[in-house]
Amino acid sequence: QVQLVESGGGLVQPGGSLSLSCAASGIPMSGVNAMGWYRQAPGKQRELVATIGSGSSTNYADSVKGRFTISRDNAKRSVYLQMNSLKPEDTAVYYCNVRWLRNRDYWGQGTQVTVSS
Predict the structure, then answer these.
(1) CB contact set of 43 (below 8 Å; sequence gap of 6+)
(2) Which of 89, 94, 86 lies closest to 112 in space, CA to CA?
(3) CA-closest candidate to residue 80, choices 112, 114, 111, 35
(4) Of 105, 110, 112, which Cα lies nearest the Cα of 35?
(5) Beta bridge partners of 5
(6) What element of type H or E holds 105?
(7) Which of 7, 24, 25, 92 could form a Cys-Cys staple with 41, CB 3.0–4.6 A?
(8) Cα–Cα distance between 4 and 40 in angstroms, integer?
């Protein structure tokens, strides 16, 4: 059974930082093509935040470039998102994503990030 578990969300003031983690289980990492983070704010569609491929190539949404950093550790079966200089508009539920064997996506349950004074 495939399971993705996110952690690290919470409440932070504008300009602060948070680090999100996602641990994968029940899936061979050798078949994982890419891992990433998506987010969904109330009343909005889910959007891509950042992805990292098997060759460690990265892709970021324009809104987070220079502020967020995605990384992965295959030995720990995990993907991370370091978020700096957080803004109120970053408030959303953040979801971990894993693409397996090029055509199947798995999702975590989501972790809430709230940026507010």
Answers:
(1) none
(2) 94
(3) 35
(4) 105
(5) 23
(6) strand 104-107
(7) 92
(8) 17
